[in-house]
Write a sequence for this structure.
């Protein structure tokens, strides 16, 4: 989300007026302060870039791998390798499904407003997959606007899929086993090894079902945030839940964020809700790899996850 430029300009005009009024007396001090602030901003940008790399669990969801005992009967490297392959198979499967998506982004404070988008992911008779917008009223957001990065995140980060192909880009640390509703899961802290230009990444916690080796929940945020001068592009922490739609595949069905974005002009409270529903398989002859249970993994878990409070 980017700070609304009109809101930002109000602060700029006010500052300009004060500067002109005291220009003759304060010009040298003002220039010195400006240089000092720029140096501070550069240091903040550098610290921010460092903080957005490496495996980091979402606050309150887990500790680093060294703080918990690893299962003695299971190699965590094998778990990671096999769930990533399962994610690759799932991505291939999901690309052969139609579904509905509803997006609601709310500007909660200081100036209420909202953005709504409803769409259908469908196929042409020739088999080409595309998104058809079905409802898109005029946005009424006041304190921030949605950036191109926000739209990319809605497509790739909120429904995050950590495939075998993307595995080399990420640092992954085992964070213990956890009972998640009725499921026995492995928990991992995840983050990008490095930030490449124009690339988007997930940083946070993922829960992997011990039976299907499928990701069933993610809690984290899209990175990197951008805070460079007037270019402020910040992203909220979110949670995405998946449900067992077909076979061993768990599909994202619900994403929610309720966060405060700390812009330099002031804090903005926002809320985001994304619902994915009506999954239907499109005719295809693609064969998917089978899920493999890791020996020693938690088992006998029901293959359903209670829906979160929505």
């Amino acid at each position: 989300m980017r700070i609304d430029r009109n809101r930002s300009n109000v602060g700029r005009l006010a500052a300009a007026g004060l500067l002109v009024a005291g220009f003759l007396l304060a010009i040298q001090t003002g220039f010195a302060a400006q240089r000092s602030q720029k140096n501070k901003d550069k240091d903040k940008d550098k610290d921010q870039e460092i903080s957005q790399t490496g495996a980091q669990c979402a606050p309150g969801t887990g500790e680093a791998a060294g703080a918990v005992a690893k299962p003695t009967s299971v190699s965590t490297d094998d778990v990671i390798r096999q769930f990533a392959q399962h994610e690759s198979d799932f991505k291939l499967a999901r690309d052969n499904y139609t579904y509905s998506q509803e997006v609601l982004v709310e500007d909660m404070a200081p100036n209420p407003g909202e953005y709504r988008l409803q769409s259908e992911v469908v196929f042409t008779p020739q088999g080409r997959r595309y998104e058809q917008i079905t409802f898109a009223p005029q946005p009424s957001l006041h304190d921030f606007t949605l950036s191109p990065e926000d739209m990319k995140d809605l497509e790739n980060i909120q429904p995050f899929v950590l495939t075998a192909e993307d595995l080399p880009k990420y640092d992954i640390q085992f964070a213990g086993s956890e009972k998640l509703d009725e499921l026995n899961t492995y928990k991992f802290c995840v983050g990008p090894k490095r930030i490449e230009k124009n690339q988007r990444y997930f940083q946070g916690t993922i829960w992997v079902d011990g039976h299907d080796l499928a990701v069933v929940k993610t809690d984290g945020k899209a990175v990197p945030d951008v805070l460079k001068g007037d270019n402020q592009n910040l992203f909220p922490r979110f949670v995405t839940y998946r449900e067992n739609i077909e076979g061993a595949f768990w599909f994202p069905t619900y994403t929610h964020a309720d966060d405060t974005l700390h812009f330099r002009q002031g804090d903005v409270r926002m809320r985001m809700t994304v619902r994915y529903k009506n999954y239907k398989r499109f005719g295809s002859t693609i064969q998917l790899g089978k899920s493999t249970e890791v020996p020693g993994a938690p088992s006998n878990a029901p293959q359903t996850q209670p829906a979160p409070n929505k």
